[in-house]
Amino acid sequence: MAEQTTADPTFSPALVSVSSPSPPKKENASPVDSKLTELNESRAELLNRILNLKQDLQSWRGKLDTQVQVYREELSGLKKTLNLEVEQLREQDDVSASLKTPGLQDDSKDSKEQMVTEETVEARLTDENAKEAEH
């Protein structure tokens, strides 16, 4: 079998010695290994920072969603209250209009004030509806 090994053209002692790692390659590998280690550490730090930022963003978004919901509920309550007040003012206006008899009293000043009040309330309602529609 020894004859076959030496007769084999692919086997040569020179190839065996060349393929074995030489000491200079180990020295060159050390800076590369340290650089790879440094890069891996840096990558791990960046990944950790990204994960922390992602958690912060999710927390911030949750708080923001909660606050938006609170504001919507408050606006809804204010809108209901305002609608009730408008309805009461209209009922008062209807009652005062039905109690008035033509020619006996001059309530033009009171009716003008009532009209201005109703227009103000309706303008507020319109503003509230527009704001709610935006959200």
UniProtKB/TrEMBL annotation:
Lineage top rank: taxon:
Eukaryota
Compositional bias ranges of the Basic and acidic residues kind? 106-135
Region spans: Disordered: 1-37, 92-135
Q: What is this protein called?
A: BnaA08g05880D protein
Q: Which organism is it from?
A: Brassica napus (Rape)
Q: What is the lineage of its organism?
A: Eukaryota, Viridiplantae, Streptophyta, Embryophyta, Tracheophyta
Query: What's the encoding gene here?
Result: BnaA08g05880D
